[in-house]
């Protein structure tokens, strides 16, 4: 059952967490150059989040649907090239031509906000740049369907239609989610679906919408670390996410630097 944000004060608290997320992403984008390590990105993100009075949502996180999983050991998820999500932050250095998906969550004043983006490292191939661009485009296609009285399937179908029209596959084994007082809440937000079906969207719902695309097979596998998910055939993967609130005035993006209302 979706948990609704019922007061402006609580929505403002989520926006405050989202502003911290946006600031961390802006700084990490500056640092994503050849030679930087994912451990360094993790360190910078952790220090920024704590300095803002928050806590990294992912650090020591245990998934609600797999309580036997080891706690996640890092403050950000840093997933490189064929890694889809939940990549570890290690001393590996990034190289020109890599792409990296960075997922940042912040818990501040009782609320979480969550955002992911895939970035190029130096000059990347035309194929890699197109994948990044289409993944972001798929997000906005879906986000524009979010309004009071619509159905979640409208968003999911729009994401998939945009991706497939550009020759990409959405990964179906991972999805977006509700977010608010907990990092992962109901409902799941799939990246494929049928218009006019699914959860009825209502004012006060807060959702993390996050398309994940690949040019290859969408099949995935989990590495032995118990967390890192990769595209099984080794194809590149891209990920784009914002936290969005459904308000009487439209869908409000809570994790952007500047105010965005769709």
Query: Which CATH class applies here?
Result: Alpha Beta
Give the class from helix and strand content and strand pairing.
alpha+beta
Strand content: 25-35%
CATH domain fold name: Creatine Amidinohydrolase
How would you characterize this protein structure?
The model has no long low-confidence stretch (mean pLDDT 96). The relative contact order is 0.18. Helix content is 27%, strand content 26%. A hairpin with a 6-residue loop joins β7 (176-178) and β8. The strands form 4 sheets. The protein has a 6-stranded antiparallel β-sheet. The chain has 262 residues and is α+β, with helices and mostly antiparallel strands. It has one domain (8-261): Creatinase/methionine aminopeptidase superfamily (Creatine Amidinohydrolase, Alpha-Beta Complex), CATH 3.90.230. The protein contains 4 helices and 16 strands. The longest helix has 24 residues, at 8-31. The chain is globular.
């Amino acid at each position: 059952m979706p948990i609704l944000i019922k007061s402006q004060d609580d929505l403002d608290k989520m926006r405050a967490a989202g502003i911290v997320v946006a600031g961390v992403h802006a700084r990490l984008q500056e640092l994503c150059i050849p030679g930087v390590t994912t451990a360094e990105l993790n360190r910078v993100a952790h220090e920024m989040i704590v300095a803002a009075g928050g806590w990294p949502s992912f650090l020591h996180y245990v998934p609600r649907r797999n309580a036997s999983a080891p706690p996640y050991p890092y403050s950000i998820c840093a997933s490189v090239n064929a890694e889809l999500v939940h990549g570890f932050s290690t001393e590996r250095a990034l190289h020109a031509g890599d792409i990296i998906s960075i997922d940042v969550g912040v818990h501040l004043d009782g609320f979480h906000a969550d955002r992911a983006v895939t970035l190029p490292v130096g000059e990347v191939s035309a194929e890699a740049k197109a994948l990044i661009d289409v993944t972001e485009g798929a997000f906005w296609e879906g986000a524009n369907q979010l309004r009071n009285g619509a159905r979640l399937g409208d968003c999911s179908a729009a994401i998939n239609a945009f991706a497939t029209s550009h020759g990409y596959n959405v990964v179906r084994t991972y999805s977006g989610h509700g977010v608010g007082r907990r990092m992962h809440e109901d409902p799941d937000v799939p990246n494929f679906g049928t218009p006019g079906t699914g959860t009825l969207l209502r004012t006060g719902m807060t959702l993390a919408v996050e398309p994940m695309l690949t040019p290859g097979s969408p099949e995935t596998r989990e590495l032995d670390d118990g967390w890192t998910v990769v595209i099984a055939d080794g194809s590149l993967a891209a990920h784009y996410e914002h936290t969005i609130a459904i308000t009487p005035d439209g869908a409000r993006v809570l994790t952007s630097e500047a105010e965005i209302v769709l």
